[in-house]
Amino acid sequence: MPSPYTTPYSLQALTADRAEDFWRVTDSVARERRYLSFLEISQQLSAQYVARQLAANAPHLLLLYGDQVVGWCDVSPHEWPIHRHRGTLGMGMLPAHRGLGLGGWLLEQTLALAAKRGLHRVELTVHADNRRAIQLYRRHGFQQEGHLRDAIHIDGRFGDALLMARIN
Question: Which of 45, 113, 36 is nearest to 71 (CA)?
């Protein structure tokens, strides 16, 4: 998918040969201890996730700067029959590439893939103090559906999380 930006950013669907690159980026964001449900991600766990995503033909895009993976956005479809119209969104980006407007482009392209693959509902959980992400999600049609008090516990501190969803 061509970039609407003049810089060398592009999007690429996740492939098996990019599994290690995906792991490096997700593990790096997880180790920031601020955004993801994981505080670190093992290469083995990431490889299993990539295999499931590829087997499910899940919407999963990588953000590249040149040839380097610097972010991702994916929707993991639910497996149970009555929930197959739903998927859970995850996304992240390395710090140097945040704040450039790339998240909205990455998110919209991934959501378009989700709609093409028949996912009617895309949901997510976001840390309540992650204002930039919450604003991004709202700008792209997500609505808050719940507030989970003390749902997060990192380094001895509790934090809230928000449940958000978008209906395609």
Answer: 36
Q: Which amino acid is at 63?
A: L
- Residue 69's H or E segment, with its range, is strand 68-77
The owner of tokens 């559906």 is: 145
Radius of gyration of the chain (CA): 15
**Burial of 164 per CB tally in 10 Å (0-12, 13-18, 19+):** buried
Q: Is the pTM of this model over 0.85?
A: yes
In this structure, are strands 9-13 and 60-65 parallel, antiparallel, or unpaired? antiparallel
pLDDT band for 6, please (50, 70, 90 cuts).
low
Find the mean pLDDT for residues 57-72.
97
